[in-house]
Amino acid sequence: MSTEDMSAEETESVEEAVEEVTTQVAPEEPVDVAPVEVAPEEVAPEEVVEVAPEEDPEGGGSESNLFDRLADALGEIPDNPNDRILDGLNERQIEKLPIEAKVMLKHVLSERLREMERNRAAKEAIQSDYQRRKQALADEAKTLLENRAKLAKVFQTEKVKKILRSKDIKDSDLPDPYTPEGIQARVERATAQNFSDFIEPITQSARRAEAEAAYNKFVETHPKMLKRQFKSEVAQVVKSRKQASTPISLQDAHNLVEHQHSRRDASERREKERTRRAASARKVGRSSVGSDPENSPDIPAWVGQSGYKGLRGPAATYHFLKDNPKIHARVKKKQGRA
Question: How many Å apart are CA 191 and CA 196, to the nearest integer?
């Protein structure tokens, strides 16, 4: 038997089996059943028992409920807390607080200290980052100036100078334009002219960068140039000498201003020393006059305070004037008596 005949027979047998199973499982027709009437019985209504919510013996609850209860107990909470409220407290007021309030205040102070520490750390981080960025920019600017200075040196080589010199050759100095040599010479002159126009702004910028780099290096080795007044005086010396057609180098201008400052400082020190010595001499002179009864302008105060020769009051004054005729004469003259 071939494979196709076997497949056909198996298919027919499968279809017959399916029809047989379907016939056996088919639902029976529904049977009409008359409903049975049941007499309703009176049922007593159930009593509804209300169950009170269980109370937490620890008086806890969720965190939000606890916060709400504490907020209600404290009263109205300000929207903008006063940062200086601790300034009005002193030790005596804190000692009068109950234990619970002291514990709460300790935690408030601890949180305040932590916040201050966080703010300090954040401020230091910002300052450190600022200094790092500032130094990075300074290093980049320094590198840029150094590179431009190197570029200026490249344009100052003998080979470049030789090329640029050909741009100034006059037509009369060039070979016949109808010869290969004359054509080549004119091409080289035009090339040199275009090259000069191209590198002129680059050369100027490189020269400025070279001068600025040299100035920055000079400032690094001469700390006084960091002072604005000193630097301004040095710049003024360089400018005035340049205008007078007697230019001066930056080093010489620095030395000149430094010498002027040294002389001025020495003069100020001498003047202060002279003033101090004069004041000291005047003080010593007043002390000498006050200690000498003969040169005293009036009766010393100690006569009335401590007495004189065991006497006090007018008697002490009388005997003091009797023993010091010069002072007595000055007192009489002051009082208008001869």
Answer: 8
Q: What is the pLDDT of residue 124?
A: 93
For residues 191, 195, 197, 198, the Cα torsion angle rounded to the nearest 10 degrees is: 140
| DSSP conformation class of 57 | T
Contacts of residue 202, Cβ cutoff 8 Å, sequence gap at least 6: 151, 155
Measured distance CA(163)–CA(191) in Å, rounded: 9
Mean pLDDT rounded to a whole number for the chain: 76
Tens of pLDDT, residue by residue over 73-124, are 877 777 777 767 767 778 888 888 888 888 888 888 888 889 889 999 999 9
C-alpha span between 37 and 106 (Å, rounded)? 80
Contacts of 294 (CB under 8 A, 6+ apart): 324, 326, 327
Closest by Cα among 184, 163, 162, 166 to 175: 184
Q: What percent of the chain has pLDDT over 70?
A: 75
Buried b (16+ CB within 10 A) or exposed e, 38-71: eeeeeeeeeeeeeeeeeeeeeeeeeeeeeeeeee
- Is 302 within 8 Å of 270 (Cβ atoms)? no
Residue positions counted in the chain: 338
Q: Sorting pLDDT into bands at 50, 70 and 90, what band is 13?
A: low
Burial-class residue 328 by CB neighbours within 10 Å (0-12, 13-18, 19+). middle
Closest by alpha carbon to 210, among 160, 140, 254, 151? 151
| Residue whose C-alpha is closest to residue 143's, from 195, 202, 209, 197 | 209
The span from the CA of 292 to the CA of 324, in Å, is 11
Q: Which two tokens stand for residue 325?
A: 């005729």
- The burial class, CB within 10 Å (0-12 / 13-18 / 19+), for 193 is middle
Q: Is the dihedral of CA 234, 236, 237, 242 positive or negative?
A: positive
Note if the pTM is more than 0.90: no
191/189 Cα distance (integer angstroms): 5
In degrees, to the nearest 5, what angle opens at C-alpha 140 toward C-alphas 197 and 220?
Answer: 100
Query: What tokens were used for 264?
Result: 């001025």
